[in-house]
Structures are given as C-alpha cells and as structure tokens.
Design goal:
Blueprint: H1 10-15, H2 22-52, H3 54-68
Length: about 70
C-alpha cells in the first residue's frame, strides 16, 4: 500500500462523507475508471484495425463466396 495526499472538490467530499472506508471506495472507483479507459482504448484500436483491413476483408470474402458457390448455379 502507498499513502497519497490528494485534493478533492468540496462537493465530492460532501458526497462521500458518510462512507466509512473512503480509501477503499476511492481505490475501487479508480479501478473502475481505469478499466473503462482501457476498454475504450481497445475498442478504438479494434475499430481502427477494422477500418484499415476493410477492403482486404471484402476482397477475401468475395473470393471465398465465389468458391463456396461453385456448383450451386
């Protein structure tokens, strides 16, 4: 464990004044926020990757579609 001295807006301190273990509460809130940030970054990277490979994927799908439909016509 590491001890930190932080400054919070008064409105937030009022909202958490009745919470018995503020350190645990803040740690859990930070974990949730960091997890959300990581997921957002991953989603952004995945979306960018899909955009980059969109045309290549389309060509591959068209090639496989022609092969898959051979003999059905």
């Amino acid at each position: 464990m590491k001890r930190l001295n932080i400054t919070l807006p008064e409105e937030l301190t009022r909202e958490i004044e009745n919470i018995s273990n503020k350190s645990r509460f803040i740690a859990e809130a930070l974990k949730e926020k960091l997890t959300r940030i990581k997921k957002e970054k991953m989603n952004k990277l995945l979306a960018e990757g899909y955009k980059v490979t969109k045309e290549e994927d389309k060509k591959i799908n068209e090639e496989w579609e022609n092969i898959s439909l051979e003999g059905w016509k």
